[in-house]
Amino acid sequence: MGQGKLFLVGLGPGSVEHLTHKANWALSLSEVVVGYESYVKRIDNLLEGKEVICTTMGGEVSRAEKAITLAEEGKIVSVVSSGDSGIYGMAGLVYQILQQRGWEATWGLEVEVVPGVALINAAAALLGAPLMHDFVVISLSDLLTPWSTIAKRLELAAQGDFVIVIYNPKSQQRWWQIIEARLILSRYRSGLTPVGMVSSAYREGQQTVVTDLEHMLDFEIGMLTTIIVGSSTTFIFEERIITPRGYRVR
Ligand code: SAH
After folding, report:
1. Residues 91, 95, 98, 100: what is their CA dihedral angle, to the nearest 10 degrees?
2. Domain residues for 107?
3. Which of 209, 226, 228 to mutate to test the pocket of ligand 1 (most atoms within 8 A of CB)?
4. Tens of pLDDT, residues 143-201
5. What's the pLDDT band for 55 if we cut at 50, 70, 90?
6. Is 119 in the pocket of ligand 1 (CB under 6 A)?
7. 249 in a structural domain
């Protein structure tokens, strides 16, 4: 086995100013960069002289296998994800395949996750301070998770009065899940509960909406939208969404 290195790099939400120094360093060191086409395009100025392997959406397993094989052959390889690689990104899949291949941490190929600014961070920053107290993140994508599991998690998170971050609210094929999710949450929360929605955070076409549970579906929601539903203490102030931490302010 060679002395290859595999970086699992989070690129952040979009703009280069949110790419960490460490991510930049890992990319500059890499001979091969592997990732979904639209992510790789956004960093193409950092890729000069490197072998770039682009795949389309849905090619995650073959992308991860290819990257591991190249690193096993001794190459320095970065597998890039948007946001953070360890949050609905490529890191888990890569580790699953490594486990299947009998990889051991103490020899040969080195593996390192390079954290990135996740979309929860980006969306929260653009909305104000909605994640100041306990929150959960739930993806509405039922491609890899049964809807019954997702619905149960929404139900319990709503009962627990958590702030709820919703990832993957909608795609062209998946349109009813967000309608159903809103219905579940409405059983436990008032229609006046603050809801923030950020689309294309730190990218061209960025949009921020501050609304409430009653009206959230009146706005455009897409593949690049992150939704934050407040808890019972969350409030709106100057078009921003704030969840108090509990400090007393005089
Ligand atoms: N690895 C990413 C999550 C990818 S899951 C992370 O660390 O955050 C894909 C979901 O992330 C999308 O469906 C959407 O809900 C959210 N997302 C991705 N890019 C976004 C963007 N630029 N603005 C707002 N939300 C985004």
Report:
1. -130
2. 5-117
3. 226
4. 999 999 999 999 999 999 999 999 999 999 999 999 999 999 999 999 999 999 999 99
5. confident
6. yes
7. no
248 Cα to the center of ligand 1, angstroms: 34
Same domain, 141 and 41: no
Res. 2 pLDDT band, cuts 50 70 90: low
In one-letter notation, the amino acid at residue 14 is G
Q: What does pTM read for this prediction?
A: 0.95
Answer whether 162's CB lies under 8 Å from 130's CB.
Answer: no
CATH code assigned at 137 = 3.30.950.10
Mean pLDDT of the chain: 95
| Same-domain pairing of 84 and 175 | no
**Does 84 contact ligand 1 (Cβ within 6 A)?**
yes
Task: Using alpha carbons, select from 191, 195, 185 the residue that is nearest to residue 227.
Answer: 195
Q: Among candidates 145, 100, 105, 116, which has minimal Cα distance to 8?
A: 116
